[in-house]
């Protein structure tokens, strides 16, 4: 059998699409879902979507009706670039952060419309309730009992490197078009992730340029593309991204708006697994190999294979944090860690 060409990239497969009739059907599809999917036209009746279908300017004018009189954080990319918000050659960010009133940001977009050398502008993960009054009430998805964080993402043509998020994510395109390229969680080793502390937005990102992948430098990316799923969304369409799925996101029009909802099925008091990873890097990663192997076995025993052999010999009333966690026992662990880390 001939060997696979390491420089051949498979085309991403189309993402599965489903049809839902009403909020009950949507929530039934979301509950326990482990695979991503697209729902065409889920928010087609939003007034914001109707404005976005008219033009980017109409969408901006609509949003300004609801904005609060506060500064917004905006990423300003490199002029004459291709909208990729990433690292520069020194591993610093190739964009700067600024703060401005929303009307001033939109005025700059208006003034630079049609200019191919304009710097990309991107307002990322803006809390809708904090920065807008009434926008959520006029444009929202009924997610039942889920406790959600609603955010809005606005900007010119941009490319956001592949990354993942811990919460579940329902993202709705309100204006412009967006292309999502998704990878299952286990493909992280083929995406060539960058630093976990020096990141554009708090999550490690793929170092691969999806528009011009260097397969000599990143040969395993060809394997990742064999598992990739892609969807291009128009105004009114929505995509569900399960926890830890990697996603590369492109804003394809001169002005793009996305509204997304994040939520967790697990209680917030459980904390973030990333915090445990950071702590393990500090305390375990650089130990001698035989000690690292021991701690791997300890983690398997207490964390990954925490069955009856771990606690069966301890009276139930004496298992402390080895028993199923509660808000109280999680609080005791957090307090203990804070005391240890503050030494």
Helix content: 25-40%
Report on the biggest sheet: 9 strands, mixed
State the separation between the terminal residues, measured CA to CA: 60 Å
Helix and strand element order: EEHEHHEEEHEHHEEEEHEEEEHHHH
Q: Tell me the quaternary state.
A: single chain
CATH topology of the largest domain: Jelly Rolls
> What portion of residues belong to β-strands?
15-25%
Count of beta strands:
15
Shape: globular
Rg from Cα: 23 Å
- Structural class by sheet pairing and helices: alpha+beta
The CATH top-level class label of the largest domain: Mainly Beta
Which spans have pLDDT < 50 for at least 5 consecutive residues? none
Count of individual helical segments: 11
What does the model show?
The structure is a single chain. This protein has 343 residues and is an alpha+beta fold. It has two domains: 13-265, Jelly Rolls, CATH 2.60.120.10; 269-341, no CATH class. It contains eleven helices and 15 strands. It has helices at 23-30, 47-54, 56-64, 102-111, 128-131, 135-138, 221-225, 273-283, 289-304, 308-311, 327-341; strands at residues 13-14, 17-18, 37-39, 71-76, 84-85, 96-101, 121-127, 149-155, 158-163, 168-175, 178-183, 229-233, 238-241, 246-251, 256-263. Helix 2 runs antiparallel to helix 3. The N and C termini lie far apart (60 Å).
What keywords describe this structure?
JmjC_dom, 11 helices, 343 residues, Jelly Rolls, JmjC domain-containing protein, alpha+beta, 2 domains, six-stranded mixed β-sheet, globular
Compact summary:
The protein is of the alpha+beta class and 343 residues long. It has two domains: 13-265, Jelly Rolls, CATH 2.60.120.10; 269-341, no CATH class.
């Amino acid at each position: 059998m001939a060997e696979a060409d390491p420089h051949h990239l498979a085309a991403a497969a189309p993402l599965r699409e489903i049809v839902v009739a009403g909020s009950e059907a949507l929530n039934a599809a979301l509950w326990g879902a482990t695979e991503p999917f697209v729902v065409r036209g889920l928010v087609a009746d939003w007034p914001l979507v109707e404005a976005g279908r008219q033009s980017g300017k109409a969408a901006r004018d609509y949003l300004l009706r609801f904005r609060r009189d506060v500064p917004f954080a905006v990423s300003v990319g490199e002029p004459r670039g291709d909208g990729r918000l990433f690292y520069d050659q020194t591993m610093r960010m190739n964009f700067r952060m600024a703060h401005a009133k929303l009307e001033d940001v939109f005025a700059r977009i208006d003034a630079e419309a049609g200019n191919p050398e304009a710097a990309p502008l991107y307002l990322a993960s803006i809390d809708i309730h904090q920065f807008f009054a009434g926008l959520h009430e006029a444009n929202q998805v009924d997610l039942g009992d889920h406790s959600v964080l609603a955010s809005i993402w606005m900007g010119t043509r941009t490319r956001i490197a592949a990354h993942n998020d811990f919460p579940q994510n329902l993202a709705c395109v309100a204006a412009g078009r967006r292309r999502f390229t998704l990878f299952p969680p286990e493909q992280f080793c083929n995406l060539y992730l960058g630093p976990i502390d020096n990141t554009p937005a708090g999550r490690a990102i793929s170092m691969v340029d999806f528009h011009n992948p260097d397969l000599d430098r990143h040969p395993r990316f060809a394997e990742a593309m064999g598992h990739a799923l892609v969807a291009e969304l128009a105004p009114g369409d929505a995509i569900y991204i399960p926890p830890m799925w990697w996603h590369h996101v492109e804003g394809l029009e001169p002005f793009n708006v996305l509204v997304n909802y994040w939520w967790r099925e697990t209680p917030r008091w459980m904390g973030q697994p990333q915090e445990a990873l950071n702590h393990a890097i500090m305390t375990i990663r650089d130990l001698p190999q035989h000690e690292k192997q021991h701690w791997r076995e300890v983690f398997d025993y207490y964390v990954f294979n925490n069955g009856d052999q771990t606690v069966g010999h301890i009276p139930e009333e004496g298992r402390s944090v080895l028993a199923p966690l509660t808000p109280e026992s999680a609080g005791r662990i957090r307090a203990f860690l804070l005391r240890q880390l503050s030494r």
